[in-house]
From TrEMBL, chain A:
The organism of origin for this protein: Coemansia spiralis
NCBIfam families named among the record's database cross-references: small_GTP (TIGR00231)
Name under which the protein is recorded: small monomeric GTPase
UniProt xrefs under Pfam families: Ras
Gene Ontology MF term list: G protein activity; GTP binding
TrEMBL record, chain B:
GO CC entries: cytosol; nucleus; Rab-protein geranylgeranyltransferase complex
Xref: Pfam families: GDI
GO molecular function, one term: GDP-dissociation inhibitor activity
Protein name according to UniProt: Rab GDP dissociation inhibitor
Family: Belongs to the Rab GDI family.
Any one GO BP annotation for this protein: vesicle-mediated transport
PANTHER family per record: CHM, RAB ESCORT PROTEIN 1 (PTHR11787:SF4), RAB GDP-DISSOCIATION INHIBITOR (PTHR11787)
Length: 220, 463
């Protein structure tokens, strides 16, 4: 029943084989622009503010990323609004290789709350090597800036994380942030080599079910 | 967005984040309801929660004493009766104040040793498995929860008596290969599997009678099918119920491997509850943990509810009866449970087993898990045992069950407690869920959720 090899099942025969799948999380206060960063990176879209008041309907997005002739599958996970009362599930953090901690450069409060997110991360992330990146979003609002670039960089240095400023609105820095993060994950094999499912585990996705789900399980 | 509710409107308030309530939350949210989902604890899962060792011991001090009135903690030969809530600032010191008998200093040393590996433990007060071909797995797959969760097949099913363990044959191949079955017994079992795999015409009487009369099963063979496959526990199964259960069990074999059950990595109920909560949030559900339901005032649009973090107007409420409710009452149904840490993985280092202990007419269900499902550090094992009845009457039985299985190991830490099932009838606009029972799998959890959903979706209930 496992006879379908990747070459015969793949609709695009020339696509390189996926070397690894990375789970990347976005965390941070409400309204700092986590979903906008996600959307900009995966779909190169930016929704006007009136459409983005709450994140509804985004579970995670998938993006293929090529590096050194290898293809990586990135799954980028949004908080689904569960950051509002700080009720992210521990299973959200489990198995993540990269975490992007987002604050809004025009909100001092969102920057000060990074401590809470770092603490939560340290509690729930199963792997100590998980790559963290602090990202200051909304640099297009330069006039309203409340957190200097230096403050952000200093914070990142203290917590030994990567750091970047970006604007999901104007695109600046978003692609670069993701690239840095993924490069760093790729450079840290301990992170993803041992994340391979251990022998004997069962994944209950649709492909292994023998009957019954193909028809109504298809989203397309 | 503010972290305070200012009379926001929700269609449904769901109180408690157990697996049952979480399934309901996700179903309603997916159907377009605006859902507010709260829990009084700072963690997800309610009765299905999963803890680190210190988290589990903290639970013993902070648990709902109405629902879990009695609890004994054994460490080495020390006994600690945790009969009243305690502060948790200094967990070990606080636990030691409940000392009743045995050696205190050895207990403290043992506890410190175990807590050094605190986060390598995943302890569930009420562990459950997933049947490979049942309603729960279909829901998980249908909802894409396979993306969040990983499972392991349960490797063995054992029937246990005071004489020891005997493996339950899982397949026709197993039956053929068995050396403990006689040829006649093999024929009888094959006939049973073939006949029950198809639909029997509405059989009458009890399942036990059916096995004895129609299939001529006697002695251990009869008990194996009745208790280890159909999993009869408290009451006598009707022939129809028994046939349905065997049918489900036999059909579960082979779907994800050669076993009928799956065990979730990192604690099943908690992972399932969290997955459904996350899905509910993705479709717009609002989540608040560590929240207190202070007041419910009926009004013409439903209820005005006061929470610590503000007020909300809701049209209806779905509630775990363990939360305060004037109508909730303890049922006669009481389940006693044991959670035991073994210093030796007696049934295999990366093995998961379900077992049934039969002793003088009593039935004890057991579950054996190891580091393979992240339940304990390597080199140890976790044994769960549970049966109907109060701790006062069943503790020796539970100890005997664990003792027979874990002969080659020391029980370094064990907790015995009884869980009283609370219930409350639905009142206008408030629906109560039912609580975990003695079953070994999540099928009854699924049924409990569907029951509430069908009540909510009935046209004559208020919207």
């Amino acid at each position: 029943m496992d006879s379908a090899s990747s070459s015969t099942a793949s609709p695009v025969p020339t696509a390189p084989e996926i070397a690894s799948t990375f789970k990347i999380l976005l965390v941070g206060d409400s309204n700092v622009g986590k979903s906008s960063i996600l959307l900009r990176f995966t779909d190169d879209h930016f929704l006007p503010p009136e459409d983005t008041s709450a994140t509804i309907g985004v579970d995670f997005k998938v993006k293929m990323y090529d590096l050194d002739g290898k293809r990586y599958k990135l799954t980028l996970w949004d908080t689904a609004g569960q950051e509002r009362f700080r009720t992210l599930t521990s299973s959200y953090y489990r198995g993540a290789q990269g975490v992007i901690l987002v604050y809004d450069v025009s909100s001092r409060e969102s920057f000060e709350h990074l401590d809470n997110w770092v603490e939560e991360l340290n509690t729930y992330c199963s792997n100590d090597d998980v790559v963290k990146m602090v990202v200051g979003n909304k640099i297009d609002k330069e006039a309203e800036r409340q957190v200097s670039r230096k403050d952000g960089a200093d914070y990142a240095r203290r917590h030994q994380t990567l750091f970047l400023e970006c604007s999901a609105k104007t695109k600046i820095g978003v692609q670069q942030a993701m690239e840095e993060l993924v490069n760093k994950i790729v450079e840290t094999p301990s992170l993803w080599r041992k994340q391979l499912p251990s022998k004997g585990t069962v994944s209950v996705d649709e492909t292994v079910t023998s009957s019954g789900f193909g028809a109504n399980g298809c989203a397309c | 967005m503010s972290d305070h509710l200012d009379n926001e409107h929700f269609d449904t308030l769901i109180v408690g984040t157990g697996a049952t309530e979480s399934i309901i939350a996700n179903e309603l949210s997916a159907a377009g309801h605006k859902v507010l989902h709260i829990d009084r604890n700072s963690y997800y899962g309610g009765p299905n929660a999963c803890f680190s060792l210190s988290g589990f011991l903290t639970w013993t001090l902070t648990r709902d004493f109405r629902q879990v009135p009695q609890l004994d903690l054994h460490i080495g030969n020390g006994l600690f009766a945790i009969d009243k809530p305690g502060p948790i600032e200094s967990l070990t010191a606080q636990l030691m104040t409940y000392h009743k008998e045995g050696d205190l200093s050895t207990a403290q040393e043992t506890l410190d040793g175990l807590l050094a590996n605190d986060r390598a433990y995943m302890v569930e007060p009420v562990p459950k498995l997933v049947l490979c071909r049942g309603n729960m797995i279909d829901l998980l797959v249908d909802q894409g929860v396979g993306d969040f969760m990983r499972f392991r097949g349960v490797d063995h099913n054992y029937l246990v008596t005071r004489q020891g363990l005997e493996r339950v044959p899982e397949s026709k191949e197993d039956i053929f290969a068995s050396t403990s079955l006689t040829l006649v017994e093999k024929r009888k079992l094959m006939r049973l599997m073939t006949t029950l795999g198809a639909n029997l015409e509405k059989p009458e009487g009890s399942f036990s009678q059916l096995l004895a009369q129609q299939f001529k099963l006697t002695g251990k063979l009869h008990d194996t099918v009745l208790y280890a496959v159909a999993r009869q526990t408290g009451y006598e199964l009707s022939a129809q119920e028994g046939c349905d259960r065997v049918y489900k069990y036999v059909n579960s074999i082979g779907r994800y491997g050669r076993m009928a059950y799956l065990c979730a990595q990192y604690g099943g109920g908690s992972e399932i509850a969290q997955s459904f909560c996350r899905l509910c949030a993705v479709t717009g559900g609002t989540y608040i943990l560590d929240e207190k339901l202070e007041c419910i005032e009926p009004n013409e649009d439903g209820f005005k509810v006061s929470l610590r973090r503000g007020t909300a107007q809701v049209s209806r409420i779905v509630m775990d009866p363990g939360y305060y409710s004037p109508n909730s009452a303890a049922l006669d149904s009481v389940v006693s449970r044991a959670v035991c840490i073994l210093d030796n993985p007696v049934l295999g280092t990366d093995t998961t087993c379900v077992l049934t202990f039969l002793d003088e007419g009593s039935v004890v269900s057991l579950l054996y898990v190891t580091s393979a499902t992240m339940a304990v550090p390597e080199g140890q094992a976790l044994m769960y045992a549970w049966t109907e009845g109060t701790i006062a009457s069943t503790k020796p039985l539970l100890q005997r069950a664990v003792g027979v299985v874990a002969q080659q190991a020391n029980v370094v830490l064990s907790v015995f407690f009884e869980v009283r099932e609370l219930t409350a009838p639905a009142t206008d606009g408030i629906f109560y869920t039912s609580q975990p029972d003695t079953s070994v799998d999540f099928e009854s959890t699924y049924d409990a959720a569907q029951q509430v959903l069908s009540m909510i979706n009935k046209p004559d209930t208020r919207i």
